[in-house]
Amino acid sequence: MPLTVADIMDPDPVTVTPEDTVEAVLRVLRENELPGVPVINSGGRCVGIITEADLVMAGEDADLHLPHYFELFGGFVFLESLGHFEERLRKATAALARDLMTEDPVTIEPSVSVQDAARLISRSKHNRLPVAEHGRLVGVVTRVDVLEALTRD
Q1: Are the CB atoms for 146 and 127 separated by under 8 Å?
Q2: pLDDT value at 60 more than 60
Q3: 73: phi > 0 → left, psi -120 to 50 → alpha, else beta; which?
Q4: Which parts of the chain are beta strand (E)?
């Protein structure tokens, strides 16, 4: 019988809530030596994820300049997406997990085969996926979990 995500996931993952402070999130990540953590609401639904990438503004996102623009007929025409700037600004000034998290994260169901999990992790370029059943978080599966399971087969 082929292995499923339920067979290899961590069924009791560390989580944070949208109301947790950024300091509390950092403490959870540091104390548990995690590169990311699911964000769940009071009903246990996975509403987001916070990873190291959300915590560090690097590369193009490190420069928090106003989008380039030019004036035309007394108005401004922006040459870059204001939405992208607003997202960077929100994360740069985050006080709570809800401001920092990536909403609607890629999730996987516990009944999915390990092979399909490997494909999803590869396509999504994520190292860890929240495992959700009917929207509620039931675990976390990592790239390492999947690789170990595939090498056991």
Answers
A1: no
A2: no
A3: left
A4: 36-40, 46-51, 69-72, 75-78, 102-103, 128-133, 136-142
How many Cα neighbours within 13 Å face the side chain of 135? 7
Residue with tokens 């193009």: 60
Q: Are 137 and 128 in contact (CB under 8 A)?
A: no
Q: Which of 111, 8, 90 is nearest to 48 (CA)?
A: 90
Angle between helices 143-152 and 114-124 (to 10 degrees): 140
Residue 153 CA from chain centroid, whole number: 29
Helices and strands in the chain, H and E counts: 7, 7
**Confidence (pTM):** 0.77
Question: How many angstroms separate the CA atoms of 46 and 58, rounded?
Answer: 26
What would the pLDDT profile of 111-145 be if each residue is shown by its tens digit? 999 999 999 999 999 999 999 999 999 999 999 99
